[in-house]
Amino acid sequence: MTSQKIKIFIWNSLHGALPVGEQFAIRQIPLPNQCPRCRAEESITHALFTCPFATKVWDLAPFSLTFHANLVENTLSGLEASRKIPSLPPVGLAAGSLSSWIVWSIWLSRNQLLFQRRDFTPEETVTKAITDAREWTLAQNHPTNVSPGQRMINLEPNPNRQAHSSIFIDAAWNPSTGCAGFGWIIDDPVTPSQHAATETFVSSPLMAEALALRQAIIFALNTGIRSAVLHSNSLSLIKMIRSKTFVLEVYGVLHDIFSLSNVFSFIKFVFVPRAANDKTDSVAKQALYALNHF
């Protein structure tokens, strides 16, 4: 059992859709193809399993059996083999669930080194994987909603308004910790609600805004929404999405957003001024505050 964002990440890793050096070379993108840690040619398998850093993380994982990550031949075999190994009882996670959080944590650590020059140790990386896995598992039984019928965003009456769900999204980012809080408000006339999430190892404000948008899209799909207008006060992000411009830093997240958008029968991305998105901003800041202080 794991989160939807990690399922998407794993799907991307299995389909060669992660921005690593090998993919840059294949697509003739003029960027270095070396691993940011060991300077070997960086494939997805290397980044997640056979890089000495990744191998050390796997060695530290609290598995009941030893997983030899350095012997992994391809990403699929590595994911399948690690998923079959149970965690030790004190970890308190369902069998096979920790491995997906480990590859996700390895990837986040890699991005922090590449984009923020923050070098997390293997010990910190595996600890983050365990902590995030536990927190996500506990959170599944504690959804955050507001009372039905309470309008979150005041919209002027519009007789031509389509029957789409309006989703307002924002992110708050702490540059000193790399933590981010996400907020999204579904301004649905029937069941309006507000929701929040957090993430660590976030490289920039743009990345935070992109992650918040992806999180809101995933949530909308999981709740059955198939027609939506998504409002963000990040003008640069909205411009990227509308022009389908891929920027290296948010390449993977934008790829996810485009892929998920295909599931909707109708979807539109709209820029909204910050002043008109203040309630969502408050939700995101509260989530970030809670992450940093509890």
UniProtKB/TrEMBL annotation:
Domain spans labelled RNase H type-1: 169-287
Domain Reverse transcriptase zinc-binding: 4-58
Listed GO MF terms: nucleic acid binding; RNA-DNA hybrid ribonuclease activity
Pfam family, one: zf-RVT
SUPFAM superfamilies linked: Ribonuclease H-like
Name of the featured protein: RNase H type-1 domain-containing protein
Biological source species: Brassica carinata (Ethiopian mustard)
